[in-house]
Specification:
With 123 residues, this protein is mainly beta. Helix content is 7%, strand content 32%. The strands form 2 sheets. It has a 3-stranded antiparallel β-sheet with strand order 4-1-6, with no helix packed on it. The chain is globular, with a radius of gyration of 15 Å.
Length: 123
Amino acid sequence: MGKLVSVLKGKAFLVGVDIRKNSPSLGNWHGIELKADSNQSIYYPPGFAFGFCALGENTLVQYKCTAIFNPKTTSEILWNDEELGIKWPVKKPIISEKDNSAQSFTKWINSPESENFKHHKRQ
């Protein structure tokens, strides 16, 4: 599902990763720091994994999604996967158990569920 992401309080580093099979940018990531007072949002379309790290205490991040959240259909990709090489701006992050036990990008891209995310060439 697509996500429109805003930082309502504090600041955060937001990351999107292209997970569309056959995409020329498969596995590429984009990171941006957003602050609450910037009044900016970023949209991650379907086919992009999304993650973030708070860059201060009491940071509040909001997502507006294009579909209803279903926890049975979610999956995680390891936040510090070497293949992706995301340059997180923190030295010693506090990571949830869920995020620490996520699968590698390679394992995810080879999973049956990744077949739901394909790049479609424009005609």
